[in-house]
């Protein structure tokens, strides 16, 4: 596998097993979302990656070769913390120039990054005059300054308005298209879902699920909601259709005004939709609703 693979990561703080045999992979060109309740081990895992916490056991490989969490490794990571804190008296430009000098990045990159995160207009303004969202974007600028192989984002949507979110989405897309890696820890599942390729769910220091959003939906085994629009069809025809669906006998079937609501397993949706074809002119439209990722997450937490 080309990318980062972490295996068996374990960390104990006294009596607390913060991480218990956690394995996680981030392939090149992909973005992984790390989710879980407070205390699940998300921050601890990130701190291990950053070299801030020494694990009791861990194996890290990049492109199949074992690596140590040393200065060479840290130079390949860009990190956006949950709460950015910078010197208030510096300007945005001065701050990025400082980090560029520390990381051996060409000064010309500073202007490009300021423009990339939408802060070129505030480059010479003191950071104390920045809004929360502007500070978050500046932190993102620091994270991408050296164009790292792995971008680690901790609650990246925090404080961002729509303009800031657009910047964040475009950076994540850029990293994926360039064949780099993104690992994002977040509580904002619904907002982040479409920008992530895989999701790793942690609870009590353990991985309880890992895969695509569709993989997690299958694991949770939650029903899909199918709405059949019956419009001006006569009550008799609608009732015959409802009876046929109930005779089929899978899931909940209920009439709601001028619609029929059916709740069925994901692999049964096509079978149910085909039933209505035997009642021409009754159904005018069909809408299928997948269970939201928030609902899937709640189910996985309950099962765990």
Summed up, what is this model?
This protein is of the alpha/beta class.
Q: How many helix segments? A: 11
Sketch the major β-sheet: 6 strands, mixed
Identify the strand order in the major beta sheet. Answer: 6-7-8-3-9-10
Low-confidence stretches: none
According to CATH, the fold-level topology of the largest domain is Rossmann fold
CATH class of the largest domain: Alpha Beta
Shape: elongated
Description:
With 304 residues, this protein is of the alpha/beta class. It has 2 domains: 3-218, Rossmann fold (3-Layer(aba) Sandwich); 222-303, YebC, transcriptional regulation domain (Alpha-Beta Plaits, 2-Layer Sandwich). Helices cover 35% and strands 28% of the residues. The chain contains 11 helices and 14 strands. Helix 3 packs across helix 4 (108-116) and helix 8 crosses helix 11. The chain is elongated and about 75 Å long. The relative contact order is 0.13. The mean pLDDT is 90.
């Amino acid at each position: 596998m080309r990318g980062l693979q972490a295996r068996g990561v374990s960390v104990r703080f006294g009596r607390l097993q913060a991480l218990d045999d956690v394995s996680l992979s981030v392939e090149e060109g992909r973005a992984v979302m790390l989710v879980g309740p407070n205390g699940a081990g998300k921050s601890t895992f990130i701190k291990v990656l950053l070299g801030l916490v020494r694990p009791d056991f861990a194996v890290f490989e990049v492109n199949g070769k074992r690596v140590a969490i040393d200065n060479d490794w840290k130079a390949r990571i860009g990190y956006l913390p949950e709460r950015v804190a910078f010197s208030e008296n510096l300007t945005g430009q001065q701050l990025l120039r400082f980090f560029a000098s520390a990381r051996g990045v060409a000064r010309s990159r500073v202007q490009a990054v300021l423009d990339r995160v939408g802060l070129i207009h505030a480059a010479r303004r003191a950071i104390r005059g920045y809004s929360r969202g502007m500070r978050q974007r500046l932190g993102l600028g620091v994270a991408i300054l050296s164009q790292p192989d792995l971008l680690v984002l901790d609650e990246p949507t925090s404080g961002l308005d729509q303009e800031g979110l657009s910047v964040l989405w475009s950076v994540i897309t850029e990293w994926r298209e360039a064949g780099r890696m993104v690992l994002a820890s977040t509580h904002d599942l619904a907002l982040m879902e479409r920008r992530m390729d895989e999701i790793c769910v942690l609870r009590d220091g353990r991985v309880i699920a890992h895969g695509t959003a569709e993989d997690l939906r299958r694991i949770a085994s939650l029903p899909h909601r199918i709405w059949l629009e019956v419009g001006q069809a006569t009550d008799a025809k609608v009732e015959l259709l409802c009876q046929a669906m109930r005779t089929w006998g899978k899931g909940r079937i209920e009439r709601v005004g001028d619609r029929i609501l059916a709740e069925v397993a994901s692999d049964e949706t096509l079978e149910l939709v085909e039933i209505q074809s035997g009642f021409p002119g009754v159904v005018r439209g069909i809408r299928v609703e997948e269970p939201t990722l928030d609902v899937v997450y709640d189910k996985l937490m309950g099962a765990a």
